[in-house]
What does this fold into?
Amino acid sequence: MDKLLIKGGCELRGEIYASGSKNSALPILAASLLADTPLKVGNLPHLNDVTTMLELLGSMGVDVMLSDDMEVQVDTSSIDNLNARYELVKTMRASILVLGPLLAKFQKATVALPGGCAIGSRPVNLHIDAMRAMGADINIEDGNIVASVDGRLKGAKIMFEPVSVTGTENVIMAACLAEGTTVIENAAREPEVIDLANCLIGMGAQIEGAGSDVITVNGVDRLNGTTFSVMPDRVEVGTYLTAVAMAGGKVKIKQAKPEYLSSVITKLESAGAFFILEDNSVEISMKKRKPNAVSLTTGPYPSFPTDMQAQFVSLNSIAEGNSTVTETVFENRFMHVQEIARMGGNITLKGNTAVIEGIEKLTGAPVMATDLRASASLVLAGLVAEGSTVIDRIYHIDRGYERIEEKLKMLGADIERIS
Ligand code: EPU
It folds into this structure.
């Protein structure tokens, strides 16, 4: 099994490109199920989760053509199986995103219930309740969500509590081909929701309000394919920016959209970093030897993203001063704390808050990746630790970071993939 070997202590300097967003690519690929003609999706990141989504579509008989530059053409006219199998769903919870499109387009779907998850219980009750409110008949049979609808789904008023990103996306997609108007209240405002809506609008959908907490969708009779390029990955960009704030140096990230990273950039400024922001690029410079500690609380967009929480636990563990990091989105997203502690981090968990005392130096150690963002935090810790860090189970990283070791190497890090 591959591992990452990192020798800490190098400053990061240079330029890299942001990859396409995983959490935008996944719903957009699921949206291909709604189209009567092929959908072309560009700027897809080369990631295991994207491959899993393509495999899932392929397992339904969908024709997927991938070109070398990661543009994919998805043609659903050959679909012959409306079943998302457990073998694929268990490796990627975002598989639930096919539920809405399948029901809306084909009036039937069987989607395996995702099981447990390393970052919290992550139920899908809101997805199921919303489809029921739109007229679907849903039973749980043998671990599967077995759903059908008599005729078309019906527009409905759907209220999310709590806010759910993929829940909002599932309802938007289902509503596009439903009869009448759907109003989503307390909708997720994440930029990935806007990206999905823009793709669907390009396919002929009528959607208003994406990016706000009330989204209105007027159902149409049919959607066509279009050509769409997914937005840059704001969590990937945020992760590299945090790496620079920890390791020092100066890095420009191109094809990034810093407007979607305000909460992260504000915290990195408090940590002592300086930024030059342009529409499509972000440059960070960090001259201080160590970042200042920054306390934060995660929340739905535009609050501080839970997907950046682990990286900031790493930053704070070597910062000047003490901090608290409070997680409000997922109940168990602190698996990285024990691993950073193995590297010398002084972190105490009090309920959903990590209380962190900044220390002079982390020390390299063998550590284990437990989920995607936890793995990223260990990479950042390894970059600044004294000595060598070996991160095991990096398949978690490959789910969400495209060529992470190549990008960091280009910036001067001493990192390699070993087996
Ligand atoms: N929730 C429910 N019931 C539901 C759905 C969600 O109680 O039916 C709860 C969850 O348990 C959680 C909260 O609602 O406490 C928010 O979860 P949400 O549904 O928003 O999460 P998600 O849609 O499953 C997406 C991203 C995650 C990201 C979260 C929060 C995708 C494919 N995944 O997950 O990304 O952390 O939103 O922003 O978009 C990652 O990339 O590492 C990742 C985990």
Observations:
- The pocket of EPU is lined by residues 23, 26, 93-94, 120, 122-127, 162, 164-167, 306-307, 329-330, 372-373, 400 (CB under 6 Å).
- The chain has a mean pLDDT of 96.
- The CA atoms of residues 349 and 355 lie 6 Å apart.
- The first strand starts at residue 3 and ends at 7.
